[in-house]
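Q: I have two molecules that I believe assemble together. Could you output structure tokens for the complex as a whole instead of separate predictions?
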Amino acid sequence: MNVQLPITRPSAVEAPQSPWRLRLRRFRRHRTGMAALALLLLIVLFCLAAWPVQWWLGVDTTTTDLLARFDPPSAAHPLGTDDAGRDELVRLMVGGQISLLVGLIATAFGALLGTAIGVAAGYFGGRLDAVLMRFTDGMIALPLLPLLIVLGALDLTKLGFSPEFARSGAAGFWRVVVIISIVDWTGVARIVRAATLAIREADYIRAARVSGARAGYAILTHVLPNVASPLIVALTLTVGRVILFESVLSFLGFGIVPPTPSWGNMLNNAQELVTTAPMLAVLPGLLIFLSVIAVNLLGDGLRHAFDPRGE
Amino acid sequence: MARFLLLRTVQALLVLLVMSFVIYGLIGLMPGDPIDLMMASNPGMTPEAAARLRAIYGLDQPLLLRYARWLWDALRGDLGFSRVHARPVLQVLLPALWQTCKLMLGGFTIAVLLSMLLGVLAALRPGDWIDGAISTVALAGVSVPVFWLALVLILVFAVNLHALPASGVGDGTWADTFWHMVLPVTTLALSIIGQFVRYVRAAMVDALRMDHVRTARAKGAGEGRIVLIHALRPALIPVVTVMALSFGGLFGGALITETMFAQPGMGKMIYDAILGNDYNLALSGLLFATLVTLLSNLAADLAYGWLDPRISVG
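A: Yes, here they are, computed for all two components at once.
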């Protein structure tokens, strides 16, 4: 018995790795992506700091003080006060919560709508595909911003909601979320449809179908996981776009309604602020700008991690 | 080719027709009521007079009937009367369109030329510092809220430096008109240039890796010739398409720029019409914006087939 066994050092053998672990590793090595993630976390922390800061300073977002308009920064108001004597710092923090939340929720709703339409069109094909894609093309051909303004201007009481609800802050919030998500799902639908078409005829999906899997089962267990990576990249970029939509709608007066602050509506009367208190006009926009840059960079990093061939 | 053009035109008209109904319906759901507004401005109005006015304007009819009547009039060239301006809609719409055309022409041209230059420069050596700088600027351009960009420009150039006027169109002389257009045109250009640079760069990076470019280089073609002739031409195919596509979006997006700088263009007209319950004007303006978007999509399709000999449309 003198057989020489091949020498393998255990450390030289790579542990089997799941695709998600590989992606995570590739993302960790993407420097700008990681920097963007850090910046985004900082922004989120800043927004969440609203609660401790409110408690600490004893201020809130709505208490006005007309004797203390445009106060410079002080111990009680670290960033000074706005044109109604409200604390600017806390309004920036709470406004950020609203703006980011709209970005996330509207993107999620749009993603559900777009994924449902894209998967249905791609998986079932045929006439359903033709109808859904013509509908999508039609939506893409619409002027987004004017349409959003019309939808933002709708009188909710004429749609059967009670006047109390129509005036409430919650109505303002959900209205923005709904109108953005029913307008901004077309990109997702196209990406999901393309990805679904690409794998619909893959052997394992055919095998599943042959062994009796229903369409719903095949879609949930086989199609959607394969659509996930282009979808996640697209959705990241969508969050940035939605934040921009919310800000411009709120700025024009058709989005989040005061007194609830959002980064967009804090600039409502910025044209006058530019001459009297420039910082009030600059700060909310700067936060929008930074958040969207961070989200877009994060998207680039994720794309790198998910699809290295795309570089 | 003719068949393709006809098909797409019919499709576009269909979308326009559907949209006209959707927008007509939506506008009826906006707050306020033209008769209420008349009553507010005329305290002597009796309920009978209001009902009579309602009948005169046809507001007591069901939605479908009102829409059909509006469509019939619109097809014969009568878009109705603007309530706020007290003039026929077309007389309000055309000057506004001209103003937007001037702004768009300036902004779009600057954006196209500058993004070609920057995009090609960035693509020459992907990853070096020039590419890094240009890509960073482009990313900033994609991420900036346009109304805030306009605010910052006003703050810097109008409020602090007193160098440029912040709003309006000037007194009508050529020089004054020009100075008043500088900031709005700059804002419009900046609002799309980031997107364009990213497309041009990506298309050029792809094109410079193509086989025929390597062949040209191997045969000793000069670098300038390689970039401008061999790479730029195939790169232009996707770029021109995307630029044509975004023209419609820019037309709608001009709403922000025009509102910020008080330019009496289409966007501001639509915005004011919605705020002022001027239904006819808002409806026509929105439909016109849709039409421009549809036309630019059609132009993109045609450009694609025309530029790329491998694709034959029809």
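A: One point stands out. The interface with chain B takes residues 134, 138, 140-147, 149-151, 153-155, 158-159, 240, 244, 247-248, 251-252, 264, 267, 270-271, 274-275, 278, 281-282, 284-286, 288-289, 292-293, 295-297 of chain A (CB under 8 Å).
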